[in-house]
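Journal club side-thread
Mid-discussion, someone asked how the predicted structure for our own chain would compare to the paper's figures. Pasting it here so we can look after the session.
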Amino acid sequence: MKAQNSQHTGAAKTCATYILPLKRTSSGNLGDLPQYLDRVAEWAEVLVVDGSEPEVFAAHSRELSSGVAHLAPVHSCLNGKVSGVLTGLELAGTELCVIADDDVRYTETAFRRVLALLADADVVRPQNYFSSLPWHARWDTARSLLNRALGSDYPGTLGVRRSVLLRTGGYSGGVLFENLELIRTVRAAGGRETRAPSVFVARQPCSAGHFWSQRVRQAYDDFAQPLRLMGELALLPVLVFGTRRFRLLPAIAAAAAAGLAEAGRRRSRGTEVFPASSALWAPLWLLERSLAIWAALWFRVTGGIHYSGGRITTAAHSVRALRRTVPEDSRACGLHPRPPAHSARFPYRRGSVRVP
């Protein structure tokens, strides 16, 4: 039995690469990430593309095991996450890749389901949920439920076929909503997107302080979705002026928001991972967004949202705009449109780590 399990795991390793873009400002805070990546390394090749400063990079290298390839990005994009993803895709030795933020925690079952869906797709969008639920995670879960009710949520992980992004020269690293940009680039190139709202992948909640720092930035993402943007901009004026004539409007709006979130919770087996109380946070989230979207609009008209020492104006490009540039325009931080010349196995082992 042990030999059969080993053979099964080895087969999985040869068919997929797990790409994790990482950037930290201080060392010693990886938590359970090294242990988690050791488990993932039993299923796939693991590339950690680390854009941290040299001393932090070196500390991370000591924490990560020899079964994980740890390297610095070779691309430089305004959005640092894209720098890591493009580097990982360029160096991956497999066609099937899973891109994941450092707070994402796959089970082997979920990982294999994403790879199975990639058999008939070029990009797969699973569903994140929080592995624990402090108050701010419950608040943010309401956003996921509303997204599920109205279409599909945007997770911190995607499955992707490497070849489609090699053909396009990668995707733009000058946008804020990088996951949406990747998805739209694949679609613009004629690739197929599969939404998988019943493939649940855990995500660790951030700190409350980080949660607050993301409110306006997340709202800014909606400049890539005009219809949603207009609806959110209308929320505050409708509530303020509508309540003057109809005092029950806030209560009716809150009930409608909670009902819509509950519909999202019940969709595609969501009740397995989202507790019933999650939908009750939807009115609070909508109130937050009705304020944050106007702050985001201010940043938009004054030069863009602040990001990593710079400012980003574009949330994401439309599919129509991308079709005019893909695949002819590979952009300044795009991928080289041909496979790498290195071995299909780990291209950078412990003895040949790139240090920034």
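Post-session note: Residues 176 and 315 are 5 Å apart (CA to CA).
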